[in-house]
Amino acid sequence: MENRKKVIRARGNKNIRIKVIPGHFATNHSHVNYYVDLTSLKCTFRSAKAAAEELAKRFIHNTPVDTIICLEGTKMIGAYLAEELARPGSLSMSEGNDINVVHPETNANNQMLFRDNMQDMVWEKNVLLLISSASTGKTIMRAMDCLQYYNGRLVGVGALFSAAEEVAGQHIESIFTAEDLPGYENNLSGQCPMCRDKQKVDAIVNSFGYSKI
Description:
Strands 1, 2, 3, 12, 13 and 14 form a 6-stranded mixed β-sheet that branches. Helix 2 crosses helix 3. This protein is globular. The termini are close together. 40% of the residues are buried. The chain contains 5 helices and 14 strands. It has a single domain, classed as Rossmann fold. The chain is of the alpha/beta class.
């Protein structure tokens, strides 16, 4: 499977790269024909910093941010993004803010929650949601429900890769999109043409990576 890997470079910054593997992959919510490997962006500091700088361009001049909620292993990128948005002399609407960088817990019902000691970092704060990958948008929807419960104000959504331009009317700013993956498909498991053609599933994938079948 790994010998099918292809390198994709970001349109806005050719130094930002991801690897993709074509095939048949099952996620929690759907079946896709590409595994998008975002490991280097989330786990190496130079790549994470470059990704944060690219995302900051989308928010720096028109989005005041108090808190960044990081999902799916994006906390290092979130920290660099906070630094970039709050940088003195950046003319950012968040310049000088001591931006919180937080990660919610998930309970047994897959609902996101914040403990009492964390809630003041979300309550009535301008919140930027940062996610690794958005295919169906269900994780973003759960995060939006969480924010509503804790009275946070969602001011933007940033993603490393997103197959959707918006979720529930909220625009998603992403470094990579489905247009970067020729022929990208995302189908509900019961409507998957690869399953219908009896094509073997290569791996189960989630935000941590993949496990071959």
